[in-house]
Amino acid sequence: MLKGQINIKEGYLSIIHEASKLLSKKNTLKESLKEILKILYSYWDTPISFVALYDKETSQIKIVESFGLTKKEMTKGIFKRGEGVVGSIFKNEIPAIITDIKTNPRYLNRINLLKRFKEEMIFVGVPIKVGGERFGVLGIYKEKSKNFSSDDAIKMLSTLATLIGLTKKMYERMEEERKFWQEEKQILLNSINKDVSALNDVIGISEEITNVKKTLIRMATTDSTVLITGESGTGKTLIAKAIHNLSPRKDKPFATINCAAIPENLLESELFGYEKGAFTGALSRKRGKFELADKGTLFLDEIGDMPLMLQAKLLNVIQDKEITRLGSEDSIPIDVRIVAATNKNIEKLIRLGHFREDLYYRINVLPIHIKPLRQRKDDIPILIDYFLKKINKRHNKNIHIKNTALKYLINYEWPGNVRELENTIERLIVLNDRDIDEKSLPNYMREQGMINDIDIKDIVYNDVPVAIEAIEKEKIQSTLKQTGYVKSKAARLLGYTIRQLDYRIKKYGIHVKKI
Length: 515
Known about the structure:
alpha/beta; Beta-Lactamase; Rossmann fold; Helicase, Ruva Protein, domain 3; six-stranded antiparallel β-sheet; five-stranded parallel β-sheet; 19 helices; 15 strands; elongated; disordered N terminus
């Protein structure tokens, strides 16, 4: 392409044509603007040109791309709405031609270009707009000449500015769509991650915990009532939250009430709410847990301690799916999934007349039993490792458990289950500034650990991760033997994929007999 004084009428179509071809390519907006300004220089001999766009955050018009300007000069090209010729073009949406830039007060010379011009120059600027939406200003500098036509120049630049405006609008729309799909992707990922992370806190590799996890995944998608049983401290609340977070109700409320911790005369109002004046002290209306958990999950902890009178009302709520506030006669429909938990033997309570049999059958649709920690010793090293990392981080420490202490912890009965284990690890970390050996353990724990010194396959535990790997290796070997070394069956029982099992077989150097 030849650079020179081409008559605007002759070059008009060429400039627009070249710009249109350029804008149809998959460039960034910045790259497209730069190339358009190069086209103006090539076809119309404009030594300096720029595109200034409106910044909504600062309410300023800033030069974002140029031809013939240095980066430092571009940083000076900032105008307020109505300020100077550029600001006026943007504000009034009217093109402008300044033929006397050296003396015209409207020309601010903010970029300090006058000293660079040896010839007499003209400034032409047009608004970049599409419909009623303004985007900025397209400005050019051109040497005065006899064949220069103001009308044709403005027509051509205005057409070019419209193309730039359309391109800007297209890129904005593409960016909005990109952000929209990015947000949709993130929502989906969060949903998937939430589903996965819902089980992250259910720690353990024992067969019992593996089966619990599988059961949780199967039952979570239903709305059936769940009854979780197990000794105190086994993690029933954790299981209840996992059920909620795995379910379609995960974005709705999860409300908890401890039926053993609240006096009988207050428990009813906590569950069902009350109207103003329903009883002495009821100064305003209060919504109960059922209303607060609407469309979500209500966790009734220690339901075995619920008074018989309230058991009858709860049975009616489950059957009718509606509640009545204290002091009101109006029924309120509710949509709540109930998850209940107890450390009591409910069947024994039924025989003693302390629990309604019909309510038991209503809440025991999907039962989950959490075995005590003493019956799943495989999980103890995993839990110790988990709590060590968690509590060390909380207290900014790096305490480890020595092999001399680990065996005592594994052999201890843990009557308080996981809760007692967590509290013990925290106490050991807080009270010690060095790695924990058997002397750091309480006397009762060492005494019981020696009495219950069960065979743990004669493993030498250097640290907790090694203990975990040793237990996992032993479990894989045992399962392979149990299944006749059929890897597909062993993987299914262990909860692994074939690839995961193969990785562990290779990692631990396990010999697989050929049948």
